[in-house]
């Protein structure tokens, strides 16, 4: 398995797509039930293949990722050949960027000495989707990139 198995909730939400996937494998509903009962390892392998296909589709469309913790924001732009990073660090231990009050503080103080910025870029490895998946597994969320673009504009990068 290249990525990770979709959660039960994700699989339930993607049930129609999974049925279509099984149909492309020429597996009927009755055959699927029999396969789960008699060869659970084969059924599990089918779920793994489906999970990887879904992840590949999602990851190939990812353009922006964000990972925000109490004192850090890591904002990623997934360009064609490289990933760009805007990293924000707040040096005020009383501020939690994950909380509404903390982010409000940041919006008022983003130019203060309490806030540090770093920008970087890195070429992808041989598998850009795996690089994106790694960031998601570390807590990154897929976004539309509003925050990245705002910082890009104000930092003039």
From TrEMBL:
Pfam families linked to this entry: DUF6495 (PF20105)
Protein name, UniProt field: DUF6495 family protein
Taxonomic source organism: Robiginitalea marina
